[in-house]
Amino acid sequence: MWALVFRTLKFRRTGFIATFLAMFLGAAIVMGCGGLLETGIRMAAPPQRLAAAPVVVTGQQKHGGTALSERNRIDPGLVDTVRSVPGVRQAVADVSFPATVLTGGKPVAGSSGSAGHNWDSAQLTPYALKQGAAPARNGEVVLDSGLASRSGASVGSNVELAAHGTTQKYVVTGIVDRKAGGSADPAVFFSGAEALRLAATDGKIDSIGVLAAPGTSAAALGKAVEAEVGDGVTVLTGERRGLAELPGTLASQQTVTILASIFGSWAILIVMFGVASTLGLSLQQRQHEMALLRAIGTTSRQVRRMILGETAVLSVLATALAVLPGRYLGELLYGQLTGHGVVSDAVAFREGWIPVAVGAVAAVAAALGATLFAGRRAARTKPVAALAESATQTRWFTVPRLLLALFFFANGILLSIVTATVMEDGPSLASTAGPASVLFAIGLALLAPGITKGIVTVLRLPVRLLTGLSGELALHNAATRNVRMAGAVAPIILLIGIATGTLYMQSTEDSVSARSYAKNVLADYVVDSSAGGFGPGFVEQVRGVPGVAGASELVSSDGKVEKNGGSDIALRGVSGADADKTLAVGPVAGSLDGLQGNTVALSDKQAQKFGVRVGDTLPVRLGDGTRTDPKVVALFPDNPKQQYLLLPSAVLAPHTTAGLPEQILVRAVADADRGALQEKLDRLAAGRPGAEVAGRATLTSQNNQIQQILVSANYTIVAMIVGYAAITVINALVAVTRQRNREFGLQRLTGATRGQVIGMLSVEGGLVAVIGTVLGTVAAATTIVPYSLVKNGTPMPEGSIGIYLAIIGGALALIFGATLVPSWRGMRTPPIETVTKPA
């Protein structure tokens, strides 16, 4: 039997290429998505500055299962506790904060992202003292050699530094170099007391680097330290130590894992469908061969074994070859996420054996399932009936196919209903809306033969009137070979359904977000800081500029309301007196003037949701994990697309990693001279290192950039899946067309010209395009309609009609390219040779 398997593979190489490609590419896609999921779960971040410490103790970055968006600092008293643990040679406190080197009052080139640290932590870093000595007291610093070179500083010289909203001159006592292989941002080292003062963290530290005593393993030391420090802190070892240097990174873990899970599940479904449809089509084309085998005495069992053997060989080869491309594909997807700020590029991509196994199992299971499903009838049919059936191929309906189609329909419709009626507007909305079109498209594809026959019947009269003889021949073929045409229609449905649903879902999200943000922000200018933020008093200076109607600090963070089941929510820190002049938060109850101290303002709809009113307290968990119970002082009109709580910036900022407001929103007087006001603001900003004034357009652009963070990753994954569907389309159409070469030869021998045959194929391609477009659009509607209803209150999506036309145009190009090109090439062979050539 195996000899027959390998002989069949050898002499039917062309026919098996399509099946091999479907398995190979499908396995690679699933492996890539699996690698992305594993990366999100593991969150491996090799340490950079703390590389010398085998164990790192830091603040717990989760609370109640939710990742914190800001750094959770720890008590310095833990240093002594850790130092007393057996096996600890040394415990070193680490403090980090933004510190910018200035020349002429401006940040030096390359100092963006530079950070200040306490000198004791230098022994944990990839730095070694090159010149001079350590900073012994306040007013002294050590610079890394890169910053020293760019600022012209040397040992003994003075250097100007901006840190925590203030500017001060320091004496350079030393210069450090990065050790070979070390990696870290530009660094400035202060004395311990000065670092704590500039960090302004009420004496708290960021983390503790633990150095092991000789003979103590990192694993044993980590367990011993963990047992001693208790709750509220996290002990990191191995490749997760770098998370201590990346506050808020765990908040992106959920984004990565959800994204990978959603698209990974899509990929598995589509790959299984693609492999099954390609293999099923290949087996349909071999019906005559199977019939002949049965006619010469081959048993059903032998036919099934032969088909399974062929599939097994192809599956093993395809999945084995897909391992390396699958890893590259996963790295490409992850590069999109890191490149657009979804997750830090310090988090390493990881792909172990599990994603590889899942990808292999998905491809092999799809292939074997299709073999058992499609090959069973060929193996069981009586020889004479099989020969007759192979000539017409009109039977397609089976109870299992109907039940499977109903299963996909039911789940697709259920997801649509859940999206429209249960889901709230938020990041998880796409997780139910997106898969609906995929499931519904697969259900339509399974019933495509019957649906195709019905649509062809409806189109019969107009096609006859418009296309004449070519249309008559095409209609005859479509009626008698509806199974064959359905094989071409099915992948088109999937292609159009996924592409249309996903792209319009994204365009709707972008449009609604931009419109909502523009409505919410009243400011005409924004003053940004690239040097660690603005210190107290600067907002008053901005407010005092002639022509300024109002100015408010803006601090952005994320937290959680711990009432009525809890709810994650955005937090905004503002200057209460002018908050309603820069944001659309005009109070409907209470007064924003009272937004001072431990207070909060929220929308009227949120107040109803949380069961509070003016004068009540609202339990809130801030971004660094701190629990507070601010008093509600005002309610403002609800904007369902911009949900946040307002707190005083002076209260919220200390609980962020930056520690200071990094933006000031400015509203101009209605009749102000905008040019003159811009100049005044520019002059004021020039006196603040790293400050820059931008207009309202920049505010909108910044919001668009935030909204676009996931767009490129979404488009990359969707393009990958749509590309796979496109390859499935090409495989199906080319295979169907090549199978018909003898039919074309017979037509030409009976008097048809090459142009007439091409005309017939063009009409058939048009029918495939119309049917695929109609059904694909229906499938896409199961995603678009409920998503648009939730997002915009209307079933119609936002976005240009050009998106839809481009998708249809791409599908047409695939249909006619994969049909007419191989047909034209095949008809270059004399018809008599085509007819007499063995199948």
TrEMBL record:
InterPro entries: ABC3_permease_C, Membrane_comp_ABC_pdt. It is found in: Cell membrane. The chain crosses the membrane at residues 258-283, 303-324, 353-374, 402-423, 438-463, 483-505, 715-736, 757-781, 801-821. This is FtsX-like permease family protein. Its main location: membrane. It comes from Streptomyces aureoversilis. It is a multi-pass membrane protein. Pfam families: FtsX. Residues 262-383, 716-831 form the ABC3 transporter permease C-terminal domain. Keywords: Cell membrane, Membrane, Transmembrane, Transmembrane helix. The keyword Transmembrane helix applies.
